[in-house]
Design goal:
Number of strands: 13
Structural class: alpha/beta
Membrane topology: Multi-pass membrane protein
GO molecular function: secondary active sulfate transmembrane transporter activity
Strand order of the largest sheet: 9-10-11-12-13
InterPro entries: S04_transporter_CS, SLC26A/SulP_dom, SLC26A/SulP_fam, STAS_dom_sf
Number of helices: 31
Keywords: Membrane, Transmembrane, Transmembrane helix
Helix content: 55-70%
Protein name: SLC26A/SulP transporter domain-containing protein
């Protein structure tokens, strides 16, 4: 029965969700039944079985899951659709079309980053848009293939077929949905800012590196940073001049970027310039394709072209659970084994990318629901896998376009999806003429701003040690693998957290109470847990002996101690016993009631605590008086009195009667005892 109620209490008592993190509590064990999500005590003979209690709990959960509030939270379109007006519709239409014109060249380019045929990028850019419009909660998030997801896909598909990429999309969706159902949003918090900076900077450099060969018009292999650059330098003499010139032309900015620097004429033409600026990707790609087509008509091919793009929409079918490569057949488990850690890393980083996007363009009025984003991105990936998509998420570059276009709701994704569908249905024959150099330039221009070297200086000024996980992540991602790099960075951060937990800062100082009693004040700066208890115990003991001369009372200020575990409680019990053995008082100040109960449960002998200065004075006074009453014997005086003031008055009155040999003997004995301790 005890185990049964441990399980019931652990499941039922969920205190709440904070940024997607599930907070659980474990109340006092008892017997009873579940009513409205709470355990109600009942007589022992009336307790039901586990099946009955589980059924009641399940009914309660189902009833709570189908409330109107939860429905609006999990299907956000139901919350904003009733108030959707013409103004919001126009804003979404403009933003959706603008993002769609950006998404088409990016989708083709990202398929190249992923090492897949160009149609797979387009397949990934429409279905997720429709799903996210229903379940998404971030209005600026434009769902589709991203640079990070594409490069991770490339690293895990070396020597594998496109079917593995589609299965990775399906599994990523399943993992993201599972994380959402289990309220695992708190996992994102373990990826710190320095680790994120190191990862995105390295990923951007790797992505740009993979596109340099297309800028130079080289046909080389390789996916790793060092390998690609070795091949580039080996074949640098084969550089195609026209591809290089075309790629550099894309980097020329179109339109001013700062509204404050515009002239009066530019302000009049602001809307036109804004449209040109936000649509520059599609403009450059179209112009490049037209130029390539004209060269083709005249019998010349100065550029390396994208080539054949499979026309039409993809069939709606289940993701491939078997694949064949070089006459070797892979079943589902073989495909999963080949994908390896990507099954966890890709969905985790997809969520991180979308959360970062939401924070970057937050209006400060809405609270991000990480759990809902997990569910929305998971559903988008899951459904997109049925149209042969690669892993998708919200991209920062498209999010910036969405934001600048004034998008009002996630419904802008619908118009983006429609634009991509029209492109797939009617324009794929023309995509064959797009030069790879222009697509490579689109990618490089999109990721170059992801390299965040500018944050090194602020990190150095604020906390230099944070550069260690940042640089470790950066170089590990660059020279080993992206997945291993971010794991290494997270691991270093966890080690720092564990070290801080195991080695808390302990402040030691001498102090006087309001009544003039001297004591040693010891203040730990955090809770006591099993890795730190021996360290704190040794520090307090050393302070009590050296600074407190094994006699001055030691007061542990516990204001920062929010909790202790069993090992820590046992260590503190041993500390109290050590002080008791040498007759040195030790007191606890500002101790939480819950921690007091823990120490009392361990039946700690001579455990003394107080909550205010008055109680501290009362506890300090006996120790001082005991020491005071012994002074008369050290001096060899025969005086009476038990109160502190009274004893000292009598000592000073009879100080002339001090017996020299008694005093010398007492001082010598005290010195010997202190030296031998």
């Amino acid at each position: 029965m005890a185990f049964e109620w441990r399980l019931a209490y652990f499941i039922v008592n969920r205190k709440g969700i904070d940024n997607g993190a599930l907070v659980l509590s474990m109340p006092e064990l008892t017997t009873g039944k579940v009513e409205d999500g709470n355990v109600v005590k009942e007589d022992e003979e009336g307790g039901g079985g586990l099946c009955g209690n589980g059924r009641e709990w399940l009914e309660t959960k189902v009833r709570r899951s189908f409330t109107k509030k939860m429905l609006l939270r999990r299907i956000p379109i139901l919350a904003w659709l009733p108030t959707y007006n013409a103004s919001a519709a126009v804003s979404d239409l403009v933003a959706g079309i603008t993002v769609g014109l950006t998404a088409i060249p990016q989708a083709i380019a990202y398929s190249n980053v992923a090492g897949l045929p160009p149609q797979y990028g387009l397949y990934s850019a429409f279905m997720g848009c429709f799903v996210y419009a229903v379940f998404g909660s971030v209005r600026v998030s434009a769902i589709g293939p991203t640079a990070i997801a594409s490069i991770l896909t490339r690293e895990n598909l070396i020597g594998l077929s496109p079917e593995f990429a589609v299965l990775l999309t399906f599994l990523s969706g399943c993992v993201e949905l599972l994380m959402g159902f289990l309220q695992l949003g708190f996992l994102i918090d373990f990826i710190s800012g320095p680790v994120s900076v190191g990862f995105t900077s390295a990923a951007a450099i790797i992505i740009a590196t993979t596109q340099v060969k297309d800028i130079l018009g080289l046909s080389i292999t390789g996916s790793k940073f060092v390998e690609v650059w070795e091949n580039i330098f080996e074949h640098i003499s084969e550089t195609r001049l026209w591809d290089t010139l075309l790629g550099k032309a894309k980097d020329i900015p179109i339109g001013p970027s700062d509204m404050k620097e515009k002239s009066s004429f530019q302000k009049i033409a602001g809307k036109a310039l804004w449209l040109v600026s936000t649509s520059r990707n599609i403009i450059v790609v179209v112009v490049s394709a037209v130029a390539a087509y004209e060269f083709e008509l005249h019998g010349s091919r100065p550029f390396v072209l994208t080539g054949f793009v499979k026309p039409g929409l993809p069939p709606f079918q289940s993701p491939p659970f078997t694949a064949e490569i070089n006459n070797e057949t892979f079943n589902f488990f073989g495909m999963v084994s080949s994908l390896g850690s990507a099954i966890l890393v890709v969905p985790l980083l997809a969520i991180l990318e979308n959360v970062a996007l939401a924070k970057a363009f937050s209006d400060g009025q809405s609270r991000l629901d990480a759990t809902q984003e997990m569910l929305a991105i998971g559903a988008s990936n899951l459904v997109s896998s049925f149209v042969s998509a690669i892993p998708i998420s919200g991209a920062l570059s498209r999010g910036a376009v969405n934001h600048s276009s004034g998008v009002a709701t996630p419904f802008g994704n619908v118009y983006t999806g429609i634009i991509v569908i029209l492109a797939l249905q009617y324009f794929t024959p023309y995509f064959a003429y797009i030069p790879k150099a222009s697509l490579a330039a689109v990618i490089i221009a999109a990721v170059v701003f992801m390299v965040e070297f500018h944050v090194v200086k602020p990190i150095w000024r604020t906390k230099k040690i944070d550069l260690i996980p940042a640089l470790a992540t950066f170089f590990s991602c660059l020279f080993i693998r992206l997945e291993l790099g971010i794991v290494i960075g997270i691991g270093i951060n966890v080690i720092f957290l564990l070290y801080g937990s195991a080695r808390p800062t302990v402040k030691v100082e001498k102090s006087l109470s309001s009544s003039g009693f001297e004591y040693l004040l010891v203040t730990p700066d955090r809770s006591l847990v099993f890795p730190s208890v021996e360290y704190v115990r040794n520090l307090v003991t050393k302070a009590g002996v050296k600074l407190g001369y094994s006699s001055i009372p030691v007061v542990i200020d516990s204001r920062h101690i929010q909790g202790v575990d069993f090992t820590a409680a046992k260590g503190i019990k041993s500390l109290i016993e050590d002080f008791d053995n040498r007759k040195q008082p030790i007191l606890f100040y500002n101790l939480k009631p819950s921690i007091v109960e823990i120490f009392q449960e361990l039946r700690t002998k001579d455990f003394k605590y107080c909550h205010n200065d008055a109680e501290l004075n009362d506890l300090l006074r006996p120790a001082i008086i005991i020491a005071t009453t012994q002074v008369k014997d050290i001096l060899g005086l025969s005086i009476t009195g038990s109160k502190f003031v009274e004893v000292w008055e009598n000592i000073f009155e009879h100080i002339s009667e001090t017996r020299l040999w008694d005093t010398l003997l007492g001082v010598i004995c005290m010195a010997i005892l202190l030296l031998l301790r």
